[in-house]
């Protein structure tokens, strides 16, 4: 398959796969900042670049609306991600973020926002090297402007602005295969509200199953079972950071979180991110940690329901509690908060609890990529310790 744009980029090319003579690491060296293109890339005549400030209500709503009408849909076009404004403010403004990496394209005459792409800074460890990267996300071109080759220019522009900050690597995901995935993950989900999922046609009644039998199958206890299981609080940040750093060491690619990152990424935020710890009743030590983020989807073309409330597994660390017991408690909390389903990728140790906790695999892949960094071999999902929102 031809990838006209990606064949011009410093990414692992398909024909290089298996060529063990190519060294692992950056593909191109950094450019002297004076040699980085100083002005934005050219856009087709009717359009102009706009740096999107997602702090003010008005511009945040503009980005939110563009995404909610034009961003990723499932393969059957039944659902479309519906990120909230609060979620975008959280996801796009981590410690050390760059306003200039929140990039929009608008129509010169009407000022209508028609495209968006965003980057945020992150320290990502790749095997033994911690690399300063940009996490690139939310690439969205208005449905009416597709196939005008806007996406390549969005990607080149965010790359240029990342280079201006002296950052030369990036991480991103896509539902499609591009040159060349560092890992290809499967997504699984666990029904929490089977009746709604069947009503909207997301799930089907199993063979020989009635609705009441199905509701019973997915029923969860009303309260969590692990003694000391509670919401994460500010004073837990140091202990949670230690837990996360130690746990993520086992993976080939993982974030290099510090306490500032942990406070931003995991302190609970209503309808954005939820985190829980297990504080041992005896020692008061923090022995386990679990978290999920909230990413609802619009239900396209359903009279009765408009929103699918989905929780997405984020980072989970079990050092004393069995992981499946910890995750069962997470499911119980998600159900208490009226989520309809719980999503997870087969990354880290997630496969160890899928079957027992009644997750089922969906027919989709999420591929992970690094920009300007070659890995000799693709990673198994369980070697990957990175979750992007
Ligand atoms: C149910 O509503 C959907 C609305 C849009 C797309 C999909 C399918 C899909 N593409 N799912 C994922 O990419 C996915 C499945 C499990 C966990 N995380 C995921 O994506 C996350 C991470 C990447 N950025 C988007 C959110 C489902």
Secondary structure elements and their pairing?
Blueprint: E1 47-51, H1 57-70, E2 79-81, H2 85-92, E3 102-107, E4 113-126, E5 129-141, H3 150-164, E6 169-174, E7 183-191, H4 194-199, H5 211-217, E8 229-231, H6 237-248, E9 253-255, H7 259-266, E10 273-279, E11 286-294, E12 297-299, E13 307-308, E14 310-313, E15 317-318, H8 323-336, E16 341-345, H9 351-354, E17 360-371
Parallel strand pairs: 5-6, 14-16
Antiparallel strand pairs: 1-3, 2-12, 3-4, 4-5, 4-9, 6-17, 7-16, 7-17, 8-10, 10-11, 11-14, 11-15, 12-13
The structure holds the ligand COc1cccc(CC(=N)NC(=O)c2cccnc2OC2CCNCC2)c1.
Ligand 80O binds at residues 72-74, 79-81, 173, 175, 187, 295, 297, 308, 312, 343, 345, 364, 366, 388.
